[in-house]
Amino acid sequence: MARIVVLGAGVAGHTAALFLKQRLKNRHEVVVVSPNSNWNWIPSNIWVGVGRMTKKQVIFPLEPVYRRKRVDFRQALATRLHPEGDEAEARPAVDITYTAGDKKGMTERLRYDWLIDATGPRLDFAATPGLGPDGGHTVSVCTADHAVAAEKQLQQAIERLRAGEHLDMVIGMGNGTCTCEGAAFEYVLNVEHELRRAGVRDNATVYFFTNEHELGDFGVGGLTIERNGYRMRGEMLTESLLRERGIVPVMAAGATEITEDTIYYEQVDTEGVQQMHYDFAMLLPPFKGARIDAVDRSGADITDRIFAPSGFMKVDADYSKKSYDQWRAADWPETYQSPAYANLFAAGIAFAPPHPISKPRSSPGGVAIAPAPPRTGQPSGATAKAVALSIADMVEGRSDKPTQKASMAHLAASCIASAGTGFKTGQAVSMVMSPIVPDTQVFESGRNLKETSGEIGLAGHWLKRMLHTAFIYKMKARPFWWVIPE
Ligand SMILES: Cc1cc2nc3c(=O)[nH]c(=O)nc-3n(C[C@H](O)[C@H](O)[C@H](O)COP(=O)(O)OP(=O)(O)OC[C@H]3O[C@@H](n4cnc5c(N)ncnc54)[C@H](O)[C@@H]3O)c2cc1C
Which structural domain, as residue segments, surrounds residue 43? Predict the structure, then answer.
């Protein structure tokens, strides 16, 4: 009996665990290691952050699902890999530290035959002094608890606006190297929607503060859309959404320090340090990989053989240093297998991208200001499923190498960005891009124009709301859960 250990129980880890169990039944052991007791549908945190959903609506406990599916769940944090085993045993292992229950604080060396790193992003608030809710001055919507705290501050701001104060409300990216611009874009549109609903919009100046050089870049180099025979950049769609709502964009900006009422930042095309005042700020952190190191059998450090300096796991990508004009879609990984150890894989945000997708830029003062490549829910689920099915095939002897491929240079992704909730008044921008990583060698604009689109409307809002219910249903592993696509 083989043991497959999955680190992380987010979109990727939980998807991988469910597919492994579906394929391998009880013939092999599936163990999930994750520090939190709940699963969180992170995209809906946006609605928690404006008070339109409760925390309870966006989370559910993992333990009952794993008990039903006979997955061994360890509520713990992975800290160190021993891919060659240790002096006691050659079987590989991962060190874990329990985070809850009777075993809280205890450590264990958990042996594995196969391991999937699906530890997602580490929220690197420390990258910008003063950033973030823990010890900093700004709020976040990255976790359900962050979103609850953001909503509280938003309500306080609305009360001040009702009392006649004028407030500066800044939403966006807390560092020049952030990714997930789409999430900040959704939150700014939702906050603006709530201010209008509360009848206080005129008293607030709302800013979208972003590291994008072009609106609508979203870390994927933007989109070209063909409609009625003419082509337009996604920038036009994004800009018009902000303009219609009177949201002021601050672009190509990288925050360098945040005090209790001021954001200091540099910009790509401007000399010197700028500053702007704020009363309410939701700024996302940059993402790093989980803090997991690795040692060989003798105990010597081999972290850099397995992980990139960012902390993300190196997989079957081309990581050789190349200039922007040499980047190719083929640089992106297909199987997510570690080149160092064949029984190690990464899925979701945990794999190291070979390079960004958006053009790298910096300020005259040398501050790096360009979006990092996003790995949204759909590719996170798709890569996890591919890795799980490959491992299942290898465990059962059907192949000696990965059987599934899920390159972001071939996968399409759809993304629905909420622009405000409400059964009749809601709106969302529905975007489809194919492929996610543009391939200019195959498509003139980098993407297949027949499969790339962007629309705004009420139907998008309903779809986004339906997806919330559908994904939580799927992740609770209810009957026929696997029919719902990633
Ligand atoms: C505010 C916000 C809004 C978003 N909106 C959208 C959207 O509308 N559409 C979309 O497609 N995507 C959206 N995304 C992106 C989406 O949430 C991610 O693509 C997805 O969560 C990535 O899945 P993952 O499993 O890689 O990481 P996660 O879902 O973050 O899961 C990582 C897991 O690893 C665990 N973990 C961390 N460290 C360790 C460790 N050392 N040991 C063990 N476990 C560990 C974590 O606790 C967690 O369970 C949004 C993201 C944010 C922040």
Answer: 3-123+287-360+373-395
